[in-house]
Each structure stands twice: as structure tokens, then as C-alpha cells.
Inverse folding.
């Protein structure tokens, strides 16, 4: 009898082993934040053909599935791959080929970096970016005199950190044909005492850009691969590239199909007549790695360069209101054109005046179209009366580190009352809309997803300033922040059915962190590290 039972037991075990389902990867012994509808936790999951096959306890997954590869997470926290809802991916890569002025503490340091860069690279046209006069002792815009003296024959063009102001020398002005008589709309070509200072703000900057040498296809490809490496290190598996042209989009598509460019990109088409004419009459273009279904429109400039369009004058510049970058009628015409297509409209709006124009235009066009998910990019300064327009169909897309970068001088620009009523109001936006899509706006800010998370929940800089947090009532919880960097960002891209959470049938994009971002002391968040990044079940970092 004993032998019969032994035979039966062995037979059951053998049958059980034979009946296990084959998958490509099993992750077990993990603390998994699924970010599903219930924000449920799990211990293990199985991956097959690049997608999550099943999620559950370790015993459930290992009793049903067997895999070619199994990862023991040793209790580490696992999350859906982070999604950056607003960044400049291609520009980030290009910037690594230019002079880096991020973090400079004076104009003298800017000049020193340019000299050092040129000695090593000997460029015929020097480009770079990242300077911010608000970080200098002298907070006025710099002038071109020193650059003219050191580089009389080599054009130089240096973007401010926000990308909305440009410092150039006389050689660059000459090459672009810019004089004191040059006409423009939307922005500024700064003059003092009838002379050009070398500062251009917003629209006139294009005159300089048009005069710059265009990157070769090899340089463009290198930029994309460089940006991908930087992003994978921070757990990003999808990036929204907020404003790129057809040539870049088509190169991305080609590299994704034929080379090792794997990053998932949600591409916002730059608002040019050429781009609109090419794309809007076509169906949106979608692959597993590229989604082309939105248009990026610039409503106004940036607060730091006083280009944001305000309803009332700047507190630190009498009679100055900033400016819209296009006439209101032009914006409304483009919005109406996009509304007739299958594309989403995503508009840069920082000042309360720009936000009012964008929100009321969206509202009028979308009243009978409830699932267009048009986005307001930045939504930085909102009049108290205008919060009512936000919803799951008019989505706030915000970048938390803007609050902690601007907090030192934002009150100077806006005054205390305007700042407190509706600036950097992420919690108020969430309460009104039901979601917020979170991004970095890199390379305006750093690529770090952990700085994004920290700024959202702590509202401080990395020196613990201010001690109680900047307008702390507008902080998000950790759960809200994680959703904003995953499932809500996916929703804002019309991609919530395929990514943004660890659920059966979705892309197996996930990350392991060295420590649990949901539980570590708040002060540790900025310095967290990604242990591994997986895209479609493949380890990419």
C-alpha cells in the first residue's frame, strides 16, 4: 500500500511539473507596487512575450509558471517603469554635445566654461545652454561685450536654462542678420541705449537657430542614444518628448526598428505649418515604442525670463506683463484645426493670462467631446477663477521641480498674494482634475526622477530648504506622486491600457530600487538609486 501511495505522489509531482506554463521571466520575493486600480501589492509576477502574464504571491506564480530566467528580488521594491510626462529627450542628447552651463554661479564662470570648451572642440559655431541669471549675485541678464572681445569671429548662442532666452555675441547676430531694426512678434530683442545687448527672448530666438549649422544624422542618432542611457539610469521607460519635428520622429522610428534605441517615446509634434500639414490629415502613428498623436503649442514664455503672460504686471517690473508667443486668433485657429483631427493638443502655458486663453479655448472646443485629453503643459500660475476648467479631459501636466527651482525668486515676480492663490498649486490641480501627469522638463531641470518625486512630496531643495516646505499645502502624497509618474502619465498619453501599472497584458516595463521610495525617510529620496530597469521584460540598465 505504501509503495502505491509513493507512486501516486511522484506521479502527481511529475504531472504538476509537466503542466507548468512556460514564460520568459519570473520575478519573485519582491515588494511589488502594482499601481493598479486598488493600488494593491504583490510578491511575484511572470512575463511572457514582453508583457506581464500574471501577478500574485510567490507561491501562486512559481506553482503555475516556470521560466528561462528567474529573478530573486530579495525583498526589494519593484514599481512600474517611470513615465516622464514632459521632457525634451532629443534636446537632452544634443545638449551633451554642447557647452554645459548648468549650475554656473556667475557670468564669469559661463565665460570660463566657453573658453575651456572651445579649446577642446574648436567649433565653428559655439552652442550651449543652462545658464540662469537668478543663480548669480547680479540677477540681471548678461550682455555680449565679453563674448565679442574673446570671440569676435566665432558665433556663440547660449540658451537660458528654461530655453526661453538666448545670449548671443555680435558674430551670431551678424550671421543671422539681426539688427536694431529687426521686427518681431512675441518676445524681445533686447536693446540698451540703442544697442543690442545680445539677449533674445522667445520668438526672435528662431532667427539665431535658423543660422546655426544643423546636426548631422549621426549626431542626431548619437544624441538619442545618449539620452536613452541617461533616462534608463533613472528608471524611465517612457518619455514624452514635448515638441519635435518630423525628421527627428522618423529617425526615432528607424532607430527603434533597426538598432538598439528602445526607449518608448510619446512624441508631441512641434507646431509648425509643415508638421501640421504632414500629420493632421493622417491617422496617428503608433508602434510599441513610438506614439505620434499630439501637437505641442507654445502659449507664452517662462517666468524666470519674464516671458510668462500675466493678467497683471510683474511685481518686479512695472508695466511689464510678459507676452503670448502667438496672437490669440492664431492659437484658436490651430486648436480648432486639431479638434477636427484625431490628435491631442498640448499647450505650454505658464502665466495666468496664457492659462486663461488656453483653458477657455479648450473648454469651448471640447464641451461635446469628452475623451480628447488635451493637456496644459506646466499650468504654473492659475487665476483662482480658472481652476474650474481642469478635468480628465483638460489635464494638468506639471513638473514638481519647477516649484523648488523657482521658489527663491517667484515671489519677486508675482508678489505674495498671486503666488499663494494659484501658483505651483499641484494639490489643487489634482483635486480639481482627478489626476496630474508629472514630468521633469529636462534638460531645463535635471533628469532625476527622484528629484521629481522629492519636490512633489517635500516641496524642498536638497539642502532641506525651506524647513517646512515651500507652500507645503500643495504637496502631493507619495501614492499620488507615484501615480503621477506612472498610471496618470500613461492616461495623459492615451496609453493606460498598455503601461503605467503592473497588470496582466501590459508591457513588462518595471524597475527595482535599492530602497523603497514609498517608505524611506523623506530626506533619502533625492539620492535613491535604480538597481535595474526592464523594458518589455528585457534588462536595459
Amino acid at each position: 500500500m505504501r509503495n502505491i501511495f509513493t507512486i501516486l505522489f511522484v506521479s502527481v509531482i511529475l504531472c504538476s511539473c509537466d503542466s507548468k506554463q512556460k514564460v520568459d521571466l519570473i520575478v519573485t520575493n519582491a515588494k511589488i507596487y502594482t499601481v493598479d486600480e486598488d493600488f494593491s501589492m504583490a510578491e511575484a509576477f511572470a512575463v511572457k512575450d514582453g508583457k506581464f502574464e500574471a501577478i500574485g504571491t510567490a507561491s501562486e506564480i512559481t506553482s503555475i509558471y516556470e521560466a528561462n530566467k528567474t529573478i530573486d528580488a530579495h525583498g526589494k521594491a519593484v514599481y512600474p517603469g517611470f513615465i516622464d510626462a514632459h521632457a525634451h529627450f532629443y534636446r537632452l542628447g544634443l545638449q551633451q554635445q554642447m557647452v554645459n552651463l548648468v549650475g554656473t554661479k556667475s557670468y564669469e564662470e559661463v565665460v570660463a566654461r566657453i573658453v575651456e570648451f572651445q579649446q577642446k572642440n574648436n567649433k565653428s559655431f559655439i552652442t550651449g545652454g543652462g545658464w540662469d541669471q537668478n543663480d548669480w549675485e547680479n540677477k540681471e541678464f548678461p550682455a555680449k561685450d565679453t563674448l565679442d572681445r574673446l570671440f569676435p569671429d566665432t558665433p556663440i548662442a547660449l540658451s537660458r536654462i528654461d530655453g526661453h532666452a538666448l545670449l548671443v555675441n555680435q558674430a551670431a547676430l551678424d550671421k543671422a542678420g539681426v539688427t536694431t531694426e529687426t521686427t518681431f512678434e512675441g518676445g524681445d530683442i533686447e536693446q540698451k541705449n540703442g544697442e543690442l545687448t545680445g539677449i533674445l527672448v522667445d520668438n526672435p530666438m528662431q532667427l539665431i537657430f535658423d543660422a546655426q549649422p544643423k546636426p548631422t544624422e549621426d549626431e542626431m542618432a548619437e544624441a538619442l542614444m545618449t539620452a536613452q542611457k541617461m533616462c534608463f539610469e533613472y528608471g524611465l521607460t517612457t518619455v514624452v518628448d514635448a515638441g519635435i519635428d518630423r525628421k527627428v520622429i522618423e529617425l526615432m522610428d528607424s532607430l527603434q526598428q533597426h538598432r538598439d534605441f528602445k526607449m518608448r517615446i510619446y512624441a508631441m509634434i512641434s507646431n509648425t505649418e509643415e508638421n501640421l500639414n504632414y500629420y493632421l490629415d493622417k491617422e496617428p502613428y503608433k508602434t510599441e515604442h513610438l506614439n505620434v498623436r499630439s501637437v505641442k503649442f507654445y502659449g507664452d514664455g517662462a517666468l524666470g525670463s519674464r516671458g510668462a503672460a500675466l493678467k497683471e504686471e510683474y511685481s518686479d517690473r512695472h508695466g511689464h506683463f510678459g507676452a503670448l508667443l502667438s496672437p490669440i486668433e492664431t492659437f484658436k485657429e490651430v486648436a480648432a484645426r486639431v479638434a477636427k483631427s484625431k490628435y491631442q493638443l498640448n499647450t505650454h502655458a505658464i502665466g495666468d493670462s496664457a492659462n486663461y486663453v488656453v483653458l477657455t479655448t479648450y473648454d469651448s472646443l471640447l464641451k461635446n467631446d469628452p475623451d480628447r485629453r488635451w493637456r496644459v503643459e506646466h499650468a504654473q500660475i492659475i487665476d483662482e477663477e480658472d481652476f474650474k476648467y481642469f478635468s480628465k479631459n483638460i489635464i494638468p501636466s506639471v513638473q514638481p521641480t519647477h516649484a523648488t527651482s523657482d521658489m527663491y525668486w517667484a515671489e519677486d515676480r508675482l508678489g505674495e498674494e498671486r503666488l499663494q492663490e494659484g501658483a505651483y498649486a499641484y494639490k489643487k490641480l489634482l483635486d480639481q482634475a482627478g489626476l496630474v501627469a508629472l514630468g521633469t522638463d529636462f534638460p531645463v531641470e535635471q533628469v532625476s526622477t527622484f528629484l521629481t518625486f522629492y519636490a512633489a512630496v517635500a516641496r524642498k531643495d536638497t539642502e532641506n530648504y525651506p524647513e517646512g516646505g515651500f507652500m507645503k499645502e500643495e504637496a502631493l502624497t507619495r501614492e499620488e506622486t507615484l501615480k503621477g509618474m506612472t498610471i496618470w502619465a500613461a492616461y495623459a498619453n492615451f496609453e493606460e491600457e498598455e503601461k503605467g501599472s503592473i497588470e496582466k497584458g501590459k508591457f513588462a516595463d518595471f524597475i527595482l530600487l535599492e530602497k523603497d521610495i514609498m517608505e524611506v525617510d523623506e530626506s533619502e529620496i533625492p539620492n535613491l538609486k535604480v538597481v535595474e530597469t526592464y523594458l518589455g521584460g528585457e534588462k536595459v540598465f
